[in-house]
Design goal:
Length: 45
């Protein structure tokens, strides 16, 4: 029972880390898009 509990805890932690990674990736994409928009605006100017 204890082994299963530890495994469950580790799995939950892994899912949390994965979710955090997805959030960071989404933020990175947003920042990149903002950078592209700024660059396009600079070129247009």
């Amino acid at each position: 029972m204890l082994k299963y509990s530890v495994f469950s805890l580790v799995a939950a932690f892994g899912v949390a880390v994965a979710a955090f990674g997805v959030a960071v990736a989404a933020f990175g994409v947003a920042v990149a898009a903002f950078g592209v928009a700024v660059a396009a605006f600079g070129v247009a100017d």
